[in-house]
Amino acid sequence: MDGERLASGSSELAVGESPRGGAPIPGGSGSCSLLQADVLDLDEDEDDLEVFSKDASLMDMNSFSPVMPTSPLSMINQVKFEDEPDLKDLFITVDAPESHVTTIETFITYRIITKTSRGEFDSSEFEVRRRYQDFLWLKGKLEEAHPTLIIPPLPEKFIVKGMVERFQDDFIETRRKALHKFLNRIADHPTLTFNEDFKVFLTAQAWELSSYKKQGPGLLSRMGQTVRAVASSMRGVRNRPDEFTEMNNFIETFSQKINLIDKISQRIYKEERDYLDEMKEYGPIHTVWSASEEDLVDTLKGIASCIDQCCKATEKRMSGLSEVLLPVVHEYVLYSEMLMGVMKRRDQIQTELDSKVEALTYKKADVDLLTEEIGKLEDKVECANNALKADWERWKQNMQNDLKSAFTDTAEENIRYYEQCLATWESFLTSQTDLPLEEDSEDKI
């Protein structure tokens, strides 16, 4: 695929960082080497867990039209990216959330600062404010222009029940980080980064963006696209290549596994929170108890101090879970839904070609016209397939890096937590007795 480049750098360890890690993106055709599904193999005998996943909605779709760089400098930049993977010429920051209250609604906008050296931009720095629905618009436009590329997911519009309220600080900060990651993943993508709608999103003032949005397809056009998409999905695809069947099977398995991991992770976090709340009560209890036990004052106060130190260590570990593991796992839950939508859109293009070939076989319409349409659709299917195969390899490498880093960092943090708690109690017990905790091997003999 033209305009592709090597991704570089390590994957992010916390929400808000944008990974550049990835393997070289293969060219137009070639076999699609799929990651073995057992990379996320889990024991599924979890009677008390229900593996859930949302139905991936089939987005409205225009004909496949890959957007190429609009200026010679853009193409030069892409060549530079291939030669110099570490070079980056687009930096985006999402910060400064701000609440807006009107008579009709209450919403939050985020400041987006863009710094770039690209020639197609009128300036080297831009500052705009965007609300969540603007991000949704951008995501939809990217899917229309690139139906078989893997568009980074957005955080859900509403927070999961039982978590923080919509406009609480924790929720706003979590969403800000997710939106920051969304834009930077697009900026790091070899094709999406040069999308014209993306450029407008980063540079246009609010009134300019509102006017630009109105230039999109009308309601009847979008309804027609949706009807065709649904009709194609109902017919199904008969001539899907084996590599895409294998890819579809991987996506289904991956979706089940990552949803299970997400649910288990959320449950662990909740249980840790309950454990911490309960442990916080024990320290004061031992302190009060020491006032009535003159012979045990030092011991009880020592226990209270140990409990307090363990509480602090637990809070630090939970902070690591909420910043390192949970966001990464849930992002790939959303990615799994996105992948299902991408596969449906690829199959839709394939189904359209199949129907034309069938019509030509039975001569149900003008032969010359059908032959011309089939030729165009064959090119369209080939472009869609090549785009998906190249993006699949890139996504797969990023997925492996992200999940590996998240679980490795979490494991290391757990080790530090247990070592810290153990050292705290060992120090306390040593101070309470003249005998060592463990006798030397010679003494045991």
Cα separation of the termini = 72 Å
- Given helix and strand content, the structural type is mainly alpha
Task: State which percent range the strand residues make up.
Answer: 5-15%
Please trace the helix and strand order, writing H or E for each element. Answer: HEEEHHHHHHHHH
Strand order of the largest sheet: 1-2-3
Sheet with the most strands, sense and barrel status: 3 strands, antiparallel
Instruction: Report the strand count.
Output: 3
Account of the protein in words:
The chain is mainly alpha-helical and 445 residues long. Helix content is 59%, strand content 7%. The protein is built from ten helices and three strands, in the order H-E-E-E-H-H-H-H-H-H-H-H-H. The protein has helices at 72-83, 132-145, 169-188, 196-203, 206-213, 219-235, 242-290, 297-361, 367-432, 441-444; strands at 90-101, 106-116, 125-131. Strand 1 (90-101) and strand 2 form a beta hairpin. The longest helix is centred in the C-terminal third of the chain and has 66 residues, at 367-432. The termini are far apart.
Comma- or semicolon-separated keywords:
single chain, 445 residues, mainly alpha, three-stranded antiparallel beta sheet, 10 helices, 3 strands, 59% helix, elongated
